[in-house]
Amino acid sequence: MIDIVSEAKKLQPDIVCWRRYLHQIPEVGLELPKTAAYVAERLKEIGIEYKTGVGVSGIVGIIKGEKPGKVIGLRADMDALAIKEEADISFIATNGNMHACGHDTHTAMLLGAAKILHENRDKIHGTIKLIFQPDEEGSHGAKAMIKDGVLENPKMDAVLGLHIGSIFKETGPGQISISYGRAMASFDKFNLKIKGHGCHGAMPNMGIDPVVMAGHVIIALQTIVSREMKPTHPAVVTIGKVHGGTAYNIIPDVVEIEGTFRAIDNEEREMIAKRIEEIAQGVTKAMRGSYEYDITWGAPPVVNDAEFTREFYETAKKVIGEENILEITEPTMGGEDMAYYLSEVPGTFFFLGGANPEKGPVYPHHNSKFIVDEDVFWKGTALLAQGAFDWLENNK
């Protein structure tokens, strides 16, 4: 057997070093040339076979155990956000982007797991795929990598991933939260263009006012959740942007509305999408206007496999102790494109507590001052490595 915990602890300084370098070169979207090059260099140093350019700038590493078995994927996202960093750290990013969601730590922790597993491949039954993914934030990276064949050659049988931070606030530093089913919601974006006919603000009867129509649409959209959804089923419809007009006394031709809707059930997700258009259509027709409607579909809900998660629970007990494992009873309405992998193969997505109020202020994800407790990194590495090793061992 491998003493993965001891090896992960020894790697802690390297994981921190890798993470801090990645933190200073944040890149956004599918094109991550510097980040991908750095990951490829580390894999080459370790001696791991890898392929670049999967899903534009994704990387897939392969660790072949010396004993036959199944294939498990370990996934980490690599992209950052277009946020100017204001965190109080010595390795702050200065290029206008920021790792404000911890993806730099995910990448570094997976590199640590890769090193441990590669150096102990003689004890492994099966194969580990290392999935370093771009553009989680835009929800394009997982789809792009799947399209480019990440699940094939060899065919992947299971998948494991993690997210650091304070998504579930009850998860203390170094603890984990797991879910045996739905853990996160779908996330989709919609655009509505409410179209009227502009005129002088003093003579509204000469035009068709899209501002008034937009107001009615916005209020009516809020009734989808409050009056059409089952009260015990969480869902969200949020308007994040409204734009229209150029002057106080001019009624414009158009008002644009942008928002998001979230659900934990795909049928309810589709119902919300349909109702947004029906409401826009009904309001604008009644008020002599018209509309345009567009959806940018994001990831579906994150749904963990119960049996895989039960096995992972036993793994986690060995790494961090049963007292440090919490169960998620209510999903977060945040989303993650890990959902695409979990829609194809069984697996689990767990949450590693990385916010530590004893070491400084705790800021939420996507905040310009977001920081994490680096002392928990070895635990993420150990959980990924032990999770892969144990699953292959138990399913040979």
UniProtKB/TrEMBL annotation:
Record domain Peptidase M20 dimerisation: where: 189-281
InterPro entries assigned: Amidohydrolase, Bact_exopeptidase_dim_dom, Peptidase_M20, Peptidase_M20_dimer
Protein name: M20 family metallopeptidase
